[in-house]
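Thread: quick sanity check before group meeting

JM: Hey all, I'm pulling together slides for Thursday and realized we never actually wrote out the predicted structure for the chain we discussed last week. Dropping the sequence here so it's in one place. If anyone has concerns about the input, flag it before I start.
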Amino acid sequence: MNKVLIINASVRNEKSHSRKLTQLFEENWKKKNSDDNFTHREVGLEEIPPINEKWIESAFIKPRERTKENQSGVEFSNELVKEFKEHNIYVLGTPMYNWSIPSGLKSYIDQLMRINETWKFRSGKPDGDYVGILENKKMFILSSRGDTGYGENEKNEHMNFQTTYLKFVFGIMGIKDISIISLDNEEFGGEIFENSKKKIYQRIKQI
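JM (edit): ok, ran it. Output follows.
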């Protein structure tokens, strides 16, 4: 039995296309994996606080030196990290904002990116060699974008700070099995966008 964490990052609700992708994924997955458990984490419509100085002071204290008092800055972060670790499949729905990701998703990632919790230095000292602590995890990144051509070897690849960043940063945490499905051409609407939706919806149904 899998534990699936659905993460929605759009600041829109009913008009969000990335939410439609995660909804379709969940409906399709449940039909094929009826025993799996689902949890939902909202990072678009609900505020995820950005990290601050108190957070940094708490997060970088070595595990053996941690106390309840000196960990007060990461209480919420601890909840998010615990939830994240407890799941083995992640479904992340996110739009592209200004060629990158929504601010709420960035804050969420900052809350998860914890030394000695989700990643560490291989030598135990700063050495530029990062080791992910999360193992045997699978992630699906379901993105929506206004334009097209952001994929590998495409004309706008150099402008894609959305899925390339997400694949990199979650890879640092140890998640190497990452599938990316992107719904493009939202800005154009009409037949162009409808054709994009048909293609991507069919891909999700085949998962």
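AS: nice. The helical segments are 17-32, 53-59, 75-86, 103-112, 163-172, 190-205. The first strand starts at residue 3 and ends at 8.
JM: adding both to the slides.
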